[in-house]
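Weekly structure sync, notes
Attendees: PL, DS, HV (note-taker this week)

Item 1: Flagellar motor switch protein FliM
DS walked through the input record. Source organism listed as Aquibacillus halophilus. Sequence as pasted into the shared doc:
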Amino acid sequence: MAEEVLSQNEIDALLSALSSGEMDANQLKQEEKDKRIRIYDFKRALRFSKDQIRSISRIHENFARLLTTFFSAQLRTYVHISVASVDQVPYEEFIRSIPTMTILNIYSVSPLNGRIIFEFNPNIAYAMMDRLLGGKGNSINKVESLTEIETTLMTQLFEKALDNLQEAWSSVVEIDPVLEEFEVNPQFLQLVSPNETVVVVSLNTTIGESSGMINICIPHVVLEPIIPKLSVHYWMQNESTKESKPEEYENLAKSIEKAVVDLRVILGESTISMNELLHLNENDVIQLNQSIDTPLKLNIDKQQKFHVQPGKRRNKIAVQVIEEIKGGNEDDE
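Item 1 (cont.): predicted structure, written out as tokens:
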């Protein structure tokens, strides 16, 4: 608990008030006791810790960056999306907070149970559609009279964005999001009970000159199986990476086994003049600088890796590895 440090003048004034009877010491004790009582609303139970909320926020910060890149490419205009807030509220409060007529997408996120809601502010949704149709990105709010063509265009755009949601959540769980419903009236949606806790992620969104919010509603039932993975310990230990390492190592080893490398053994080297080279004849002998008692060097892709000695194996010339050349991977070509 944070403590307030009083100045000397404040201390003197407090002592003076106590001595003169203007302030009662028992009254101070009672006020201190009253401060410890906090009002708690059981209808608004907090089912996620601050640590877990921070993890959800990190996931959707990554999602916002991916979505910014995706919509910028699709709409060919300035797009900026960022996380504004992450809160846990009753489902009923979320429904009341969004407009009576808006753009609602309901996604299933197999293998997780339940469904999540994406609420696109009409200003944003119509700006997207206007850009798709070759316009400047102007926004016209006429949600109640969407045509079949407009609904199809928006649905196709939102379905394409699902890969970004899948990638953002891949660090915690592999999901397969599918757009199941497209709705405009939130009163027709009853995903969970009114008092069920949901996490609402609000994204500030700017598309061209239009701006608005994208709200993501994630019920507790969806996150319940992966709540342990939302803790800071999971992010620090990265257990999913540890569990997948043996399989990754095995696949990597198989790939390396198929790799082809250039293997050469240097018998020795010598330096002669160009004139001597031009006048070489049959049976001439070139003396190498390699002693027969000194091990040869085996090069892998022009880098010295091993000391070897020459010999034969099954009537074929071969070499036997004697020792590794330390620091050989640092040698220049």
